[in-house]
Design brief:
alpha/beta; seven-stranded parallel sheet; 7 helices; 7 strands; about 20% strand; globular
């Protein structure tokens, strides 16, 4: 392909749907749980990523800020209008409700017995909740105790930590691909 054939798509060509249309669409059976996230820009980024993968909803827990909020809006760019969300003062309470509803709960955390993301195979048709923790302290221990397991992204630098919004993007993409959502959500 030469450069003359390459051309950016216009907004009309992208086939964007409205927030109302989004709410009517089939969802990717994943709930994101944000456990005490400090940065409102991280929260907004997760909303935007959640919208891109058409997740079921986001649980905002503890000190995690809720929409409407101008700092969240800076990175969400309207995704707070499409992605369903709920607030829980206590993350454990939200996780327990998801467990009762049949979700498999996995924390994104570096822990003993955590599975590397590239070896973790989510089951198609199973509903998952993915817990992302505080930027400094990670997922609370009391929340970890309620999870079915932990998943971690192998890292090879000096920091051994990703920004939460980057982690959410990597993990949601991985789950999306491994569970065959392209065909499911495009139909």
């Amino acid at each position: 392909m030469n450069s003359k054939e390459m051309q950016k798509l216009s907004m009309d060509q992208l086939g964007r749907i409205s927030p109302d249309q989004y709410r009517q669409q089939k969802k990717f059976p994943v709930v994101v749980v944000l456990d005490n996230i400090r940065s409102m820009m991280n929260v907004g980024s997760v909303f935007r990523t959640g919208d891109a993968f058409r997740i079921e909803k986001i649980l905002l827990c503890g000190i995690t800020a809720c929409p409407p909020n101008k700092e969240i809006h800076k990175t969400a760019l309207g995704a707070t209008e499409s992605v369903e969300w709920e607030y829980y003062e206590d993350t454990v309470e939200g996780v327990l409700k998801l467990k009762e509803a049949g979700y498999r709960i996995f924390a994104l955390e570096q822990a003993r017995e955590s599975k590397p993301l590239h070896t973790f195979q989510p089951e198609a048709g199973q509903r998952y909740a993915l817990v992302f923790g505080n930027e400094v302290k990670g997922v609370k221990e009391s929340v970890l105790q309620q999870c079915h397991g932990c998943i971690e992204i192998p890292q090879f630098g000096t920091k051994h930590s990703f920004n939460i919004s980057v982690t959410a993007g990597i993990v949601l993409w991985d789950f999306f691909v491994k569970t065959g959502q392209f065909g499911e959500l495009n139909s």
